[in-house]
Amino acid sequence: MATSSVIIPQNLMILILAFIAFAAIVIIAIQWRKVREVQNNVLLLEKEIELRKISLVEKDLESKRLMETTIPLPKEQQEKLAKIRKDTKNIMQRIGYLHSEISERLARLEAQTEFRKLEEMLKDIEKKEKEMDKILKRVRD
């Protein structure tokens, strides 16, 4: 009674298991890194929100303090302060715009980089598929 069964040498089996374990560790490490990056982004956003809240409270306190000031200022000083406030408001708007523009440009740059990486990967896969097709064609012939 002859049965044909594939016997894998002990060393080869250990090597295969080691490779699988290594691949699993690499995948886990990559996922762990992504989770940490997301957590850091969340913490950063929370800090940003906290700073904005503090800024709003400070502005509110400042405006209340200015309203409570009972010392009347001469018209010229009032106009000067109004101009300063207007200039500050314009500068803050430009700062907000620049922050938004930078964020959008970074997002675009990241997307373009990811797109190029994926295109390169696709080209590599297509090249390897062609090579495999040639090899399989030679084997069949």
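the 2nd protein, sequnce then structure:
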Amino acid sequence: MTSPVGSFFLLGLILALHMRRPAHAIMAAFAIWLTLVLIAPQIGDTLDPDNQVGAGVFRTLGIAKPQEKQIMTSFATYETVRDGIEQLSPAKHLERWCFAALGIKEIYYGQPLVTVMRDRWSDAAWLIGLSAALLAALFMLPFNIANLKKD
């Protein structure tokens, strides 16, 4: 499995082999990387109402669980979009997998790695799938080595 930074470099290589100017390819890869690694997770976290206040918005306002669920049903589409943006971020999948593997999350603290990996397999699979898709794109698309030669 390639690292997230390795995936960025692989994406830059793929784009450099297919774009007319390598500088544009690196800028495009950088923009994609910023979007997936920095912007998308922040959108997901920032738009989550429970992340706005330390103890959670509903608990701070003294709203009971039944009322909280009733309020959140009004925002079902909003929550779906927010969660979808967060799920697209490789950084979030890496964060969840690492927090579980290192025992930072309380439910995984002191548990064997096999048990943790069985529970967090989807995050690892998402990261492996992203790396595999980038590698497949590298080898399936025709190379244009002339793009890399300096004029």
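Residues 22-46 form the longest helix (25 residues). Helices lie at 4-18, 22-46, 57-61, 65-73, 76-87, 90-101, 113-119, 121-140.
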